[in-house]
Amino acid sequence: MISPVPAAIIALSLVYGAYMTEIFRSGIQSISVGQWEAADALGLQRLLTFRKVILPQAMRVIVPPTGNQFIAMLKDSSLVSVVGVWDIMFIARTQGRSDFKILEMLITASIIYWVMSVMLEFVQQRIENHYAKSLKR
After folding, report:
1. CATH code for the domain in which residue 61 is found
2. Residue 126: pLDDT above 80?
């Protein structure tokens, strides 16, 4: 029998790992083959080509869905309360039942999730702006 915390971590890791893998794969494949060929023509090694040429261009494609996945993972973390993991929703429900203020506690939990989502959106916007600098020139 697996305990609740490792079960929650494994479940969220597998689900979001698959999504993130697809995001990175599609971001890297969005860069044309001509970029690889140009780097080969300059004599760059494959790892250096990937790090200095391909990945910086792919980040413009990778960052938006990655940020969205982090926000979705934050929201989906409330699902782990079903298996008994102490997260914001679990604490809100148990505290609300003991004080007979379930609605107030759930509203408080939703505000906490909303604030955390807004902060992640702000960070995502900053990262997107950083990688979009070359497009603005």
Report:
1. 1.10.3720.10
2. yes
**Cα distances (angstroms) measured from residue 70 to each of 20, 53, 86:** 10, 26, 20
- The interaxial angle of helices 102-131 and 88-99, nearest 10 deg, is 160
d(C-alpha 109, C-alpha 111), whole Å? 5
pTM: 0.73
Q: Within a 10 A sphere around the Cβ of 88, how many other Cβ atoms?
A: 18
pLDDT of residue 24: 96
Tell me the residue ranges of DSSP E strands in the chain. Answer: none
Q: Round the average pLDDT of the chain to a whole number and report it.
A: 87
For residue 42 the two structure tokens come to: 């300059």
Q: Which domain holds residue 122?
A: 4-136
Torsion (CA) 98, 104, 108, 114 in degrees, nearest 10: 130
